[in-house]
Amino acid sequence: MDRRRVRFGRGGGRGTAAAVTALAALAVAVPAQAAVTPEGAAGGTCKPSVTILQSVPPGTGGPDIGGYGTRVNDIGRFGLAVGASRNVPVYWTGRRVHRVPLPEGFAGGTVEAVNRYGLMVGTIRKAGETRAFSYRPGATAVTLLPGGGHAADVNDRGHIVGHRDVPDGRSVGLEWVGSTLRRELAVPAHVRVAEVTAINNAGRIVGHGDGVQDEEYGYNTALLWSADPAAPATELPPTYPGDTYSHYEPSEIDEHGRIVGSYGFSRHDSGNGTTWAPPYAEHRDVPNLGERTQGSLEDTSPTTGVSVGVAWDSIIVGPWPPETAPPRQAQYWPGSGPMLALPRLVPDGHSAAYAVTDRDRVGGQAVNAAGMQPVIWNCASKQAYLPTVETP
User: Fold this and answer.
1) CA distance 62 to 59
2) Where residue 25 falls among pLDDT bands split at 50, 70, 90?
3) 136 contact partners, CB below 8 Å, separation of at least 6
4) What is the three-class DSSP state of 18?
């Protein structure tokens, strides 16, 4: 997985009639299989199921340590999905997998997001170097984004966000329009950017960083940028100067300005999903799944308030010894009430959810007898369930 933190996300978009030409180009560029009506789409029949997408052949990419290099990161229109397979960037039309062409010398990477019109963004890598890129289905080459080491998200207006690392250990947040760098994301003088993760169609951007209290103490802080290119980031609550154990990491912002992400308390290796909503005066903790003591929210749908992520367990507070804990599981939160589980492919198999759409489709990864697979849960709300207490 290419993200700097081990996250267990992107929303792709919604849009305007201004890109009708681009949409037509997408329909021509991808194979005819892409025109199949997705399950759950208007006019289609929503049938609960799990679709296992194709993977690139064994040996095509690099070692897939932990299976994190095989996953669906985002779901677009017309059967298009994006992500990684065996550590190389790919997209799918229906179930069929397509490799994103890599420039000479680059060996792997991932597609992080796709917008309404098929514009994909992500990160590719070679020894000692990562580069942010954009790509359209069927193109013969990627477009390298100037000054960028990582691209995390794209909205329907073609605005792309990401960051680059600098030698002093900081990162610089970036926004591009098409292939042109629009701005370096401004921050208050005492804040350093760690990661930029998402943008919505209003141009609001989220990420996280570190607040510097003095030479000895600092704290982690969630960040929100407005569409104003000159405005510095706002720190989202809570901020605890001197608290080096708490970490707040937004992953996505929807079209209403609602932000989802994850809270982690490193002292106990525990955490949960968390949300912020306008006017951002406070945050809200989200319940963990059943008896699990760790949880994340990796994505939220554009308008419905549904969020998805991953549930697992602390190696410090349990509730099970690490060697006997149940595997990680994809989780689904309707926006209120308890956290729900999404079904595994096999009873003892890892699963994780990284993307959710307004049409009730969830993308991620799951293990079956053949290993880690990129998957989509169709009609996810009809498959989500409240788990009984698991036993290791």
Assistant:
1) 7
2) very low
3) 25, 26, 29, 118, 119, 120
4) helix
Strand ranges (E), 108-217: 108-114, 120-126, 129-135, 143-144, 150-154, 159-165, 171-177, 180-184, 191-199, 205-212
123 in Cβ contact with 112 (< 8 Å)? yes
Domain extent, residue 242, equals: 47-383
Torsion angle (degrees, nearest 10) of CA 178, 277, 210, 165: -10
For 243-297, write each residue's pLDDT tens digit: 778 899 999 999 999 999 999 888 888 899 999 999 999 999 999 999 999 999 9
Q: For 88-120, what is each residue's pLDDT tens digit?
A: 999 999 999 999 999 999 999 999 999 999 999
Over the stretch 39-64, which tens digit does the pLDDT of each residue have? Answer: 333 335 689 999 999 999 987 766 66
Amino acid identity for residue 326 in this structure: P
**Domain for residue 17, yes or no?**
no
- The mean pLDDT value of the chain amounts to 86
DSSP per residue, 337-354: SS-EEPPPSSTT--EEEE
State which H helix or E strand residue 353 sits in: strand 351-356
* 95: in domain: yes
CA atoms within a 13 Å half-sphere pointing along the CA-CB vector of 266: 8
- Which CATH number is 145's domain given? 2.130.10.150
Alpha helices in the chain (DSSP H): 20-29, 380-383
How many other C-beta atoms are found inside a 10 Å radius of the C-beta of residue 362?
Answer: 29
What's the number of domains the chain is made of? 1
**Nearest-angstrom CA–CA distance, 110 and 150:** 10
Alpha carbon of 179 to those of 47, 138, 146, 202, 370: distances in Å?
Answer: 39, 18, 7, 19, 39
Q: What is the pLDDT of residue 63?
A: 60
Angstrom distance (rounded) from CA 392 to CA 388: 13
> Are residues 365 and 372 in contact, defined by beta-carbon separation less than 8 angstroms?
yes
Cα angle vertex 75, ends 372, 51, to 5°? 45
Local structure of 256: helix, strand or coil: coil
Beta bridge partners of 124: 109, 131
Residue 365 belongs to a domain? yes
CB atoms under 10 Å from CB of 385, counted, come to 11
Are the C-beta atoms of residues 131 and 120 closer than 8 Å to each other?
no
Answer whether residue 349 is part of any domain: yes
pTM of the model: 0.87
| Calpha distance 238→10 (Å, rounded) | 24
